[in-house]
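User: Is it possible to get a 3D structure for a protein together with its bound compound? The compound here is adenosine monophosphate. I've pasted both below.
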Amino acid sequence: MMFIVLLGPPGAGKGTQAERLATHLGHAHIATGNLLREAVKSRTSLGVEAKAFLDRGELVPDHIIARLVAELLDTPDGHAGAVFDGYPRTVAQAMALDQELARRGTRVTLAVALDIAADVLVRRLSSRRICARCGSTYNLITNAPRQGGLCDRCGEPLVRRSDDAPAVIRRRLEIHRAEAGPIEEHYADRRLLAIVAGDNPPDVVTATILAALRRTPAYRPRSSPDLSGVSPGLPGR
Ligand code: AMP
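Assistant: Yes, that's possible. Here is the predicted structure of the complex:
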């Protein structure tokens, strides 16, 4: 059972990588942004509380996020391991996650910070499109859907996220810059941080993350129960 945290600015590829890792490891993909967008769309009480924050690109208050994550960790899926995408976003959230996992007798396996230049991010976010139904993410330049404008998975029309508008992108990047250092430090202090270049092709990024994961003491490959060759080491930086 592994709990992997993906850190990095909006547009760094957290969603793409989280989905690939979750599939590869057979773990849940917990994307707080996707869950909040779904809640806003279906107008649940969570969505009503969160909407104004999402519209402005501001962070949703920690206590709302804490409730959401605790509920997910209590599902059988979440209990068996997860790849967190877009969470934690603050040190308070990182500490809350540590506590939630400790209560369940486990801990974060690895935190991966996807490192990428700001100009690449703005370009990526401007050409990003998502499926309004299933949340799958595409990029018109680097990861276009097979059929123009339609989701490969469910055939729904793709839309631009409302918070991928230029002014909101700027605000989201600002917030990320303010929080990123302290969160990375939180995991570096615990020797759990791997910094991975996020501007390589997605396959290369996935392979680099998996290599860092293999070097963690908690690494448990799904298909091979023989762990005798796994040496406890530190994730690379
Ligand atoms: P994302 O899809 O991860 O870019 O998140 C979209 C928006 O959802 C963010 O700009 C925040 O408003 C909100 N959000 C997502 N995850 C969190 C979180 N862990 N803490 C606070 N707000 C969040």
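Residues 10, 32-33, 36, 53-54, 57-60, 65, 86-89, 93, 163, 172 surround adenosine monophosphate (CB under 6 Å). The radius of gyration is 17 Å.
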